[in-house]
Amino acid sequence: MKRIESFPSDLKLLPEQCLHVYRVLSSSAVASDELSELEPNVFFNRLRGPAAAWNISMTDTTRWETEIKSYICRMRQNDQLHIIQTFAGPTLADLRRVDEDMGRGGERDNLKNNLMCLVEELRGRSMLPAILFHMNRARCEHFAILIRDELVKSEDEYKKLKKFPTEVGALRRDRDGLLVQLRKLGYSDHYDPDDKKLSAASRDRIAQALTELQGVERRIDELQGMQREFILTPDRTRLSDEDICDAMGIEQVEDAPEVWMVPTLRRGIAVHHSGNNRKYRQAVESLFRMKKIGLIVATSTLAVGINMPCRCSVFVGDAIYINGMNFRQMSGRAGRRGFDLRGDVVFYFMPSNKIHRLLSSELPALVGNRVISSSTILRLILKHGIIKHAESTSTAGKQDMAVCQLGIEAVTRLINFPLFKLNHLMADQAANSVAFCIEYLFRLGLIAQVDNDVTACDLGALATHLFYAEPANFSLVSLLRTETLKRVLLDSADGQLELLNVLCNLFCCLPLEQSMAEAVRTKKIAGPSKIKLEPLHPDLVKILERQGEEAIQLLRDYWDLYVRSNEDILPGESTLPLSGLGFPQVQAKGGKDPLLERYSLKFRLRSSFVALSGWDDEFATVHELCATARNGLYMDAKVRRGAKET
C-alpha cells in the first residue's frame, strides 16, 4: 500500500465515523500527545469553550474531521497500514466473503435468492424509502414482482401461523348471527330509524346490532386484506386503489398499462425506467415524493434531473455503465438536505475491486462543449418563429405568453452560455460560427427572409426533427429537393427496398468488424439477412459530394475572412508543437524575394508547422481543416457538422 498523502476532496466522514477513527487511533500503539488534542471533549472545549461544548455545529465537526485526516496523513506508512487494517478489517472480510459467494454462483441467481433478505434488512434498519439501482430494464420489473410475490407468500404463511382463517370463520358466523337477529327485529334494506311502527327498545337493539355488524365486517376486511407488516411504505399505510387511479389518471385499476403495476404499488413497490408508460412513471414520481412508496427499482433514469430524495441508495449488481460520475449521481439521492439527517449507500453483490474504484475515483473535470451547429441554429430559428406567432395571436392567453417568455429566456441562455465564450477570441469566433451556419442554411433553402425576418421553410421542420443525425438530416433534405432521388427509385426493381437502402446509408451505416468483413468477402455467411449495405446510386453520391464541397468552401471562406479581419489580435506561431522550441519570425533584409514570393505556398488558415510539409489552404474535409488550423482558431468538426463530409 502506498503512503496516504491526502484524501480525495469528495470523501467526507460523518461525525460517528470520525469518532470511530479516533477510537481506533487512540487504542493503537501509535497514539501520541498530538492525538490527545483531538479527543472530542478537549477539541470542542478548546474550539467553542466549555459553556458551548453541548451545542456542536456541523462546521465544528468538519474542522474535527479535517484535523483527523491531517493527522493520518502525517503518520508513517507502516502506522497508516496498521490503522487501516484495524479500521477496515471487518469490512474487507465481508467483501472477501461476498466475492467468494459471487464466484460460487451466477449474478442472477445470487440476486434472486437474496434480494428479499436485503429488503428485510433495509426495513429493519429504517432505511426506507430506498432506491434500488439496476441497469437492466427487464430485471427491474422482475425484481419488483419478485419482492411483491415474496411479501404475499410471507403474508399467507403469517396468516396461517396466526390462525387468521379460523378467526375469519368465527367472525363470519358472528356476522350471520347478527344478520339473523336483525331480521327478527324487523330490519330490512328500507329500514328507517324514525319509523314509529317499531318500539324504542327495538330501534335501540337494531342500532346496537348494526354497530356490532360494522365492527365484525371491518375486522374481517382487516384480516383478509394486506397486513401492515408486509407493506413497504415508510409509514406502512395501505395505498388505496383510488389513490393509484388518481395518480395514474385512469378510471379503474384494470385500465393500468401492465397487469403487474397496481399490485406492486399496493405493496409500496414501484419500477422506474425510460421504457415505462409515461403516466405510470409520473405516478411513481408523485407517490414517492408523497411518501406512499417505500421501494423503487430503477435504472439510471433517477440519477439526474428528477427530485426524488430517499434514505438509501442500493446498487444491485454490477454494470459497465456505473462509473465514478454515475455512482455519485445515484448515491446522491440518499440523504438529501432538508429531508433526512443522513443517507446510506449499499453495494449488493458488486465485486470488491469495483467498489474500491468507485469510492476512490475522482470526479472528471467539467469540459465545455460548444453546441453551435447548423441544426442548433435551425432549431432556434424555428422556436423564434413559434414564439413570434404566439405573441401576434390575439387569442393568446396569459399562460401562452408566459410560455413564450420562458422560451425567449431559454434561447437567450443558450446563446450566452458562459462555456461558449472562454475569452474574447472565442466570443468573436462563436459569432462567426453562427454567421456561417445561417449562410449555410440559406444555401440549403431551409430558411428564408420574410419581411425583414428570418423564418424556417418547408423542410426545415424535418431537418430539425432529425437534428440528432446531423449531417445526415441535411443530406436527406438535399436529396429530397432534387428529382434525382425520385428517378432512381422509379428506375429500380424494388423502389421501397432502394429507399430503405438510401436511408440506411444516411442514418444507420456502421463499419463492419474485420472478422465480419472477411466473412462477407469470402461469402462464408449464409442466410436471408443482408450484412453489407449496397452502395448508393452514383447520381446520389454526386449530389452529396457536391453538397460537401460547397459546405467546405463556404466554411473556409468564412474563416479566411475572419483571419484577415483579426490578423493583428490572433496569436503568432513561433513555437514548434512537439519540442516547444521557438523560432524567430523576421523578414530578411532587402524585403521579400520575388522568386520565393512567386513559388511559395499561400496559406492563412493552415498551421505554419503543417505548411512546412507542403500543405496550403486547400482542405479535403472539415476534420482536416479543424485538425490543422493555425493557433488561436477554436474550431471543432463536431460543432460544424452541417458542413461535414457525407
Give me the Rg, rounded: 36 Å
Mean pLDDT across all amino acids: 78
How many DSSP helices?
Answer: 26
Shape: extended
Q: How can the largest sheet be summarized?
A: 5 strands, parallel
**Strand arrangement across the biggest beta sheet:** 2-3-1-4-5
Point out poorly predicted stretches.
586-590, 639-646
Q: Give the N-to-C terminal Cα separation.
A: 52 Å
Helix content: 40-55%
Structural class by SSE content: mainly alpha
Which terms would index this structure?
5-stranded parallel β-sheet; disordered C terminus; 646 residues; extended
Walk me through this protein's architecture:
By secondary structure, this protein is mostly helical. The chain contains 26 helices and seven strands. It has a five-stranded parallel beta sheet, sandwiched between helices. A two-stranded antiparallel ribbon has the order 6-7. Helix 8 runs antiparallel to helix 9 (200-224) and helix 17 runs antiparallel to helix 23 (538-565). The longest helix has 28 residues, at 77-104. The protein is extended, with a radius of gyration of 36 Å. The chain starts with 14 loop residues before the first helix and ends in a 19-residue tail after the last helix.
